[in-house]
TrEMBL record:
One of its GO terms (cellular component) is periplasmic space. Involved in the assembly process of the P-ring formation. It may associate with FlgF on the rod constituting a structure essential for the P-ring assembly or may act as a modulator protein for the P-ring assembly. GO terms for biological process: bacterial-type flagellum assembly. It comes from Pseudoduganella albidiflava. Residues 1-20 form the signal peptide. It is found in: Periplasm. Belongs to the FlgA family. Its main location: periplasm. The keyword Metal-binding does not apply. This is Flagella basal body P-ring formation protein FlgA. Keywords: Bacterial flagellum biogenesis, Cell projection, Cilium, Flagellum, Periplasm, Signal.
Length: 229
């Protein structure tokens, strides 16, 4: 017959073994977070790399057959983020795990110094590559987004271009004589008027007709303004 102390130690060892057998595997938690972020980041403009942070090995969670990952309100699969993982049964628990989603993609930068207010040409631009999650949300990712626009400030060479600091060049100028165009099914009417404000392509502009009326239309290249019928 075993002495009582040995019997007690055996019971503790058996209990610990049983607990370890039913504890949630930290590797399974990390796989859950990784798979969740891979789905959430699908379709992002670049090569996505998901890195899941370490899990405190001192934390013991009951094993869960179907852990569910989720993002906190206001969070997204972009850059440094926090992912929650919860279990509904057989035990209820929730844990939060740090992760990072990097997106290696192209962005547009100035190849030469860009003076304030001057229209930007394609030769003044260069395509660079980097982690888009570390750049401003309004970063330009295609030269077509930039060409023809101008900057609100002077920009030095190598600076990434932000769309919120660029403005479109006007296609209609204040005081310019423009052609008013109204078209419909089987007809097209044109008239002349004078623009009373600057407007970029696609912007609404006010025009005063030769008869003195003020009408609104959509500014188009070539000094035309489309007026809805």
């Amino acid at each position: 017959m075993k002495p009582p102390i040995y019997a007690f130690a055996a019971l503790l060892l058996a209990a610990a073994s049983a607990q370890a057998a039913t504890a949630m595997d930290p590797a399974a938690l990390r796989r859950t977070v990784d798979a969740f972020l891979q789905v959430q980041s699908a379709g992002l403009p670049g090569k996505v790399t998901v890195t899941v942070g370490n899990i405190d090995t001192r934390m013991t969670l009951a094993d869960c057959p179907a852990p569910e990952a989720f993002l906190m309100p206001g969070s997204k699969a972009w850059g440094k983020t926090t992912v929650g993982v919860r279990c509904a049964a057989p035990s209820r628990w929730t844990v939060y795990i740090q992760a990072n989603v990097s997106v290696l993609g192209n962005y547009i930068a100035a190849a030469t110094p860009l003076p304030q207010g001057q229209a930007i040409t394609e030769t003044q631009l260069v395509t660079m590559q980097g982690d888009l999650t570390t750049l401003p949300a309004s970063i330009a990712t295609d030269k077509a987004q930039v060409v023809g626009r101008s900057s609100n400030v002077s920009i030095s060479a190598g600076t990434p271009l932000r769309l919120d600091t660029l403005r479109s060049q006007p296609v209609v100028l204040n005081g310019q004589m423009v052609k008013l165009v109204t078209a419909g099914s089987g007809f097209r009417i044109t008239a002349e008027g004078k623009a009373i404000a600057n407007a970029a392509e696609g912007q609404v502009v006010q025009v005063r007709t030769q008869g003195g009326r003020s009408v609104s239309g959509i500014a188009r290249a070539g000094g035309q303004v489309e007026v809805a019928f």
